[in-house]
């Protein structure tokens, strides 16, 4: 028993130890049968294994120092290289991500700065245009002129006759005649109370009623004052409404053309 244990004996001894320490008792019986067959095939008896254990007791380092096969060592080296490469790639990705975040923040700050500068220049440009328009505009309106500059016609649409008036055609005709006369007097009253510029604009429109071609208060050349334009537009819209009323009622037209006295 001075010879060193053979590899087959070591293998069988290792199988016995693994069988004893197995955590799955259900598989122990089949493993024990296979182990007995292997021991019989290699002429290994129980006494031989017992003596083998006694011999190996004095040299545990030689028995336990199992060399790793070359292929396992190469695989371990490859895994270590892959791990080192993965760590380097991770660090590089972190650096690139940090650089990209810094660049994005810089671009965001640049865009914000450009927008602020653009907004300031736009506000200055609009303010300059409004200031230039206010300085160069020939029309200057105070609060009183702004209240008058509503361009509202003094003639209202002809109201339809009520149910009581519709029962009597003569009464309807009389009411429409009076409406035409009242609108005519209302127009003359407005002309008397209007300002000089409004009267000038209204007289211009009244003088254009007999002419042919397109007519508009805005077609007059030169710089127009607000009062003149206001008077022209009021006269235009008032006469247009009176013409529409006259087109729907002959009695209204006769009342408008009268001198304002009821017949």
Sum this structure up briefly:
The protein is mainly alpha-helical and 263 residues long. Helix content is 72%, strand content 0%.
Characterise this structure.
With 263 residues, the protein is mostly helical. It folds into three domains: 7-64; 70-137; 163-257, no CATH class. Helix content is 72%, strand content 0%. The chain has eleven helices and no strands. The protein has helices at residues 7-20, 28-41, 46-57, 60-64, 70-136, 143-148, 163-166, 169-193, 196-207, 226-248, 250-257. α8 (169-193) packs parallel to α11 (250-257), α9 crosses α10 (226-248) and α10 (226-248) crosses α11 (250-257). The protein starts with 6 loop residues before the first helix and ends in a 6-residue tail after the last helix.
Query: Strand percentage, roughly?
Result: under 5%
Structural category? mainly alpha
Order of helices and strands: HHHHHHHHHHH
Largest sheet: none
SS elements, strand count? 0
Radius of gyration: 57 Å
- Total domains, how many? 3
Taking all residues together, what is the mean pLDDT? Answer: 73
Quick one: overall form?
rod-shaped
Q: What distance separates the N and C termini?
A: 159 Å
Transmembrane segments: 116-136
Keywords: Membrane, Transmembrane, Transmembrane helix
């Amino acid at each position: 028993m001075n010879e060193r244990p053979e590899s087959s004996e070591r293998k069988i001894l290792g199988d016995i130890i693994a069988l004893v320490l197995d955590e799955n008792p259900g598989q122990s019986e089949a493993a024990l049968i296979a182990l007995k067959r292997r021991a019989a095939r290699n002429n290994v008896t129980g006494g031989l294994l017992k003596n083998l254990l006694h011999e190996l007791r004095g040299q545990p380092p030689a028995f336990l120092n199992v060399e790793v096969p070359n292929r396992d060592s190469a695989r371990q080296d490859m895994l270590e290289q892959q791990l080192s490469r993965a760590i380097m790639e991770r660090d590089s990705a972190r650096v690139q991500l940090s650089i990209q975040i810094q660049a994005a923040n810089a671009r965001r700050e640049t865009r914000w700065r450009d927008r602020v500068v653009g907004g300031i220049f736009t506000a200055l440009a609009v303010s300059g245009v409004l200031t230039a328009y206010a300085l160069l505009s020939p029309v200057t309106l105070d609060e009183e002129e702004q209240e008058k500059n509503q361009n509202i016609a003094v003639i209202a649409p002809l109201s339809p006759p009520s149910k009581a008036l519709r029962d009597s055609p003569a009464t309807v005709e009389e009411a429409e005649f009076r409406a035409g006369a009242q609108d005519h007097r209302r127009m003359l009253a407005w002309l008397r109370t209007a300002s000089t510029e409004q009267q000038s604009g209204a007289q211009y429109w009244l003088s254009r009623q007999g002419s042919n071609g397109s007519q508009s208060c805005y077609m007059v050349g030169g710089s127009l004052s607000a009062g003149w334009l206001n008077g022209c537009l009021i006269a235009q819209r008032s006469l247009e409404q009176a013409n529409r009323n006259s087109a729907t009622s002959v009695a209204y037209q006769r009342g408008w053309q009268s001198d304002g006295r009821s017949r």
